[in-house]
Amino acid sequence: MKNDLKILFQNKNLGDEISARVISQWKELNIRKYHSRNDAINFFINDEKGKIKILDNIEKENFSLSGKNILDVGCGKGGMLISCALRGAKVVGIDVNEEEIKIAKMRTEACGINDNVSLMVANAENMPFSDNFFDIVLAISVLEHVKNLEKVVKEMVRVTKPGGFCYISIPNSLFPREAHYKVFYIPYLSKKIGKIYLKIRGFNPNFFMENVTYPYPSIFKIKKIFKKYNMNVQNITERHILEKFTNPSLIRNKKIRDTIKYLERLKVNNLVAKLIVYLHFYPSVHLMAKKIEISF
Question: Has residue 1 got a pLDDT over 60?
Answer without folding.
Answer: no
